[in-house]
Design goal:
Strand content: under 5%
CATH superfamily of the largest domain: Tetracycline Repressor, domain 2
Structural class: mainly alpha
Helix content: over 70%
CATH architecture of the largest domain: Orthogonal Bundle
Number of domains: 2
Oligomer: single chain
Largest sheet: none
Length: 226
């Protein structure tokens, strides 16, 4: 399957059958993983025939790619992106970005199978991963690097900028993918509640900005001396 086929797909809400197939496939892929999931099981749960997968997605990989894409783009938050773009300082933009990612991860309209799909994908990557990363995650990653680069007075491609970007991602991902562990270690923390999400978002932002502010004068001096 070509990259063009993998990347181009109409919104699921334009066709009820397509939407049902994606919802059913999300449950099946989350339960069994890509390799073990069967088209027959997906179609049975969706109440559709096998030919409908070929019609809408070409094959199982095409369907899985769309499911993976939806798991990463659930509740994208165009308003949040506009707020980040209008932020008066890169520090404010970083806070908004961190809070927005956590809000998306725990949004009420995010299907329960999202996290399990990603767990399967991390354990056994499929050909869909690189396509969806380039389409969905890379723009966010570039945005994060651009913000951090402004604070550090460094290029978004500088290794120090990238290290801090991955540090932020690591902190956020901990609260997303370690939910069962956190629920045992810290049962009073309820990330489905806005106040607790904001608590974590503020902590990650404060922790990161303290380090960035400590490093920024050094990187600025290096930039001027070059």
């Amino acid at each position: 399957m070509s990259a063009a086929v993998l990347l181009k797909s109409p919104p699921s809400d334009l066709d009820p059958t397509r939407a049902k197939l994606i919802a059913a496939a999300g449950e099946v892929f989350a339960e069994f993983g890509f390799q073990a999931a069967t088209v027959r099981e997906i179609c049975q749960r969706a109440g559709a025939n096998v030919a409908s997968i070929n019609y809408h997605f070409r094959d199982k990989l095409g369907l899985y790619t769309e499911v993976l894409r939806e798991s990463m783009t659930a509740n994208q938050g165009e308003i949040m992106q506009q707020s980040i773009a209008a932020a008066k300082t890169p520090e404010q933009a970083l806070r908004l970005l961190i809070a927005g990612i956590l809000r998306r991860m725990y949004s009420d309209d995010r299907p329960a199978w999202n996290f399990r799909i990603m767990a399967h994908e991390m354990a056994q990557p499929t050909p869909a991963l690189s396509h969806v990363i380039n389409e969905v995650l890379r723009p966010r990653y570039n945005q994060l690097r651009a913000i951090i680069g402004q604070i550090l007075h460094l290029s978004p491609d500088h290794e120090t900028t990238r290290l801090y970007a991955h540090s932020v991602i690591g902190q956020v991902i901990h609260y997303v993918h370690a939910r069962p562990v956190i629920g045992i270690l810290w049962p009073d923390l309820k990330l489905t509640q806005l106040k607790d999400r904001q608590l974590i978002a503020n902590h990650i932002a404060d922790f990161t900005l303290r380090n960035l502010r400590a490093v920024a004068p050094k990187t600025k001096r290096k930039e001027k001396s070059q």
